[in-house]
Amino acid sequence: VDAGFWSKGDARKTTETDEVIAPSEDGPKVEYGVDVSFPMHYASVSTNYDWLPHNRDPNVPTPPEYDGMPVQPLGNRQEFYQDFLQGCKDHFGPSKGMRCVHNEIDRIAMSLRQPQSMQ
Fold it and tell me: Collapsing DSSP states into helix, strand and coil, what is residue 48?
Protein backbone atom coordinates (compact mmCIF):
# COMPACT_ATOMS: atom_id res chain seq x y z
CA VAL A 1 0.00 0.00 0.00
CA ASP A 2 1.44 3.35 -1.01
CA ALA A 3 0.90 6.42 1.16
CA GLY A 4 1.21 8.97 -1.62
CA PHE A 5 0.58 12.67 -2.01
CA TRP A 6 -2.22 14.50 -3.79
CA SER A 7 -1.61 14.44 -7.49
CA LYS A 8 -3.54 14.99 -10.65
CA GLY A 9 -5.62 11.95 -11.49
CA ASP A 10 -5.86 10.45 -8.00
CA ALA A 11 -9.08 8.57 -7.45
CA ARG A 12 -9.95 9.85 -3.99
CA LYS A 13 -12.92 8.95 -1.86
CA THR A 14 -14.86 12.10 -1.13
CA THR A 15 -18.00 10.38 0.12
CA GLU A 16 -16.76 9.74 3.65
CA THR A 17 -17.51 12.77 5.80
CA ASP A 18 -17.01 14.00 9.33
CA GLU A 19 -18.80 16.91 10.93
CA VAL A 20 -17.26 19.66 12.96
CA ILE A 21 -19.44 21.90 15.10
CA ALA A 22 -18.10 25.26 16.16
CA PRO A 23 -17.20 25.42 19.88
CA SER A 24 -20.16 27.70 20.56
CA GLU A 25 -22.45 24.88 19.35
CA ASP A 26 -24.46 27.63 17.63
CA GLY A 27 -22.01 27.93 14.75
CA PRO A 28 -22.49 26.42 11.32
CA LYS A 29 -21.67 22.77 10.70
CA VAL A 30 -18.79 22.10 8.36
CA GLU A 31 -18.66 18.73 6.61
CA TYR A 32 -15.49 17.34 5.10
CA GLY A 33 -13.98 14.04 4.02
CA VAL A 34 -10.71 12.23 4.56
CA ASP A 35 -7.36 13.98 4.16
CA VAL A 36 -8.84 17.37 5.04
CA SER A 37 -8.10 17.82 8.74
CA PHE A 38 -5.20 15.34 8.97
CA PRO A 39 -3.65 12.84 6.54
CA MET A 40 -5.59 9.56 6.54
CA HIS A 41 -5.22 8.01 3.07
CA TYR A 42 -2.38 10.11 1.67
CA ALA A 43 0.63 11.85 3.21
CA SER A 44 -0.79 15.30 2.50
CA VAL A 45 -4.06 17.09 3.10
CA SER A 46 -6.29 18.96 0.69
CA THR A 47 -5.10 22.40 -0.42
CA ASN A 48 -8.33 23.13 -2.31
CA TYR A 49 -9.26 26.03 -0.02
CA ASP A 50 -12.89 27.17 0.12
CA TRP A 51 -11.85 30.76 -0.68
CA LEU A 52 -10.31 29.88 -4.07
CA PRO A 53 -12.20 31.40 -7.04
CA HIS A 54 -13.38 28.07 -8.48
CA ASN A 55 -14.98 27.18 -5.11
CA ARG A 56 -16.72 30.57 -4.79
CA ASP A 57 -18.00 30.97 -8.35
CA PRO A 58 -19.47 28.01 -10.27
CA ASN A 59 -18.63 29.81 -13.54
CA VAL A 60 -14.90 29.59 -12.83
CA PRO A 61 -13.47 26.25 -14.05
CA THR A 62 -11.66 24.06 -11.55
CA PRO A 63 -7.90 24.01 -12.23
CA PRO A 64 -6.57 20.50 -13.02
CA GLU A 65 -4.52 20.34 -9.80
CA TYR A 66 -7.74 20.62 -7.74
CA ASP A 67 -9.87 18.28 -9.84
CA GLY A 68 -11.34 15.60 -7.55
CA MET A 69 -9.77 17.14 -4.43
CA PRO A 70 -12.25 17.85 -1.60
CA VAL A 71 -12.77 21.45 -0.51
CA GLN A 72 -10.57 22.48 2.43
CA PRO A 73 -12.69 24.55 4.86
CA LEU A 74 -10.21 24.32 7.76
CA GLY A 75 -7.37 26.49 6.48
CA ASN A 76 -3.75 25.43 6.06
CA ARG A 77 -3.83 22.00 7.67
CA GLN A 78 -0.76 20.88 5.69
CA GLU A 79 1.37 23.38 7.60
CA PHE A 80 -0.16 22.12 10.87
CA TYR A 81 0.72 18.54 9.90
CA GLN A 82 4.27 19.49 8.85
CA ASP A 83 4.76 21.29 12.19
CA PHE A 84 3.45 18.20 14.02
CA LEU A 85 5.87 15.94 12.17
CA GLN A 86 8.79 18.34 12.66
CA GLY A 87 8.05 18.53 16.39
CA CYS A 88 8.25 14.75 16.59
CA LYS A 89 11.55 14.69 14.69
CA ASP A 90 12.98 17.51 16.86
CA HIS A 91 11.94 15.69 20.04
CA PHE A 92 13.65 12.42 19.07
CA GLY A 93 16.70 14.00 17.43
CA PRO A 94 18.62 13.18 14.28
CA SER A 95 19.28 9.52 15.05
CA LYS A 96 15.73 8.51 15.97
CA GLY A 97 13.67 11.29 14.38
CA MET A 98 13.11 9.41 11.14
CA ARG A 99 10.99 6.96 13.14
CA CYS A 100 8.32 9.67 13.16
CA VAL A 101 8.20 9.69 9.37
CA HIS A 102 8.23 5.90 9.14
CA ASN A 103 5.46 5.62 11.74
CA GLU A 104 3.34 8.10 9.75
CA ILE A 105 3.86 6.13 6.54
CA ASP A 106 2.85 2.94 8.37
CA ARG A 107 -0.18 4.64 9.97
CA ILE A 108 -1.46 5.90 6.62
CA ALA A 109 -0.87 2.53 4.95
CA MET A 110 -2.73 0.78 7.79
CA SER A 111 -5.70 3.15 7.45
CA LEU A 112 -5.94 2.12 3.79
CA ARG A 113 -5.75 -1.61 4.62
CA GLN A 114 -8.02 -1.59 7.67
CA PRO A 115 -11.42 -0.96 6.06
CA GLN A 116 -11.08 -3.86 3.62
CA SER A 117 -9.99 -6.19 6.44
CA MET A 118 -13.04 -5.22 8.52
CA GLN A 119 -15.57 -6.66 6.04
Answer: strand
Determine if the pTM surpasses 0.70. no
Hey, how many other C-beta atoms are within 10 angstroms of the C-beta on 112?
14
Inter-residue contact 88 to 81 (CB < 8 Å): no
- The tens digit of pLDDT for each residue in 59-71 reads 999 999 999 888 9
Amino acid at 105: I
> What is the C-alpha separation between 91 and 42, in angstroms, rounded?
24
The residues pairing with 49 across neighbouring beta strands, listed in sequence order, are 72
β-partners of residue 48 are 71
pLDDT bin (cut points 50, 70, 90) of residue 102 is very high
What is the phi-psi region of residue 9: left when phi exceeds 0, alpha when psi lies from -120 to 50, beta otherwise? left
Tens digit of pLDDT for each residue in 17-36?
444 444 445 556 667 778 88
Residue 71: strand, helix, or coil: strand
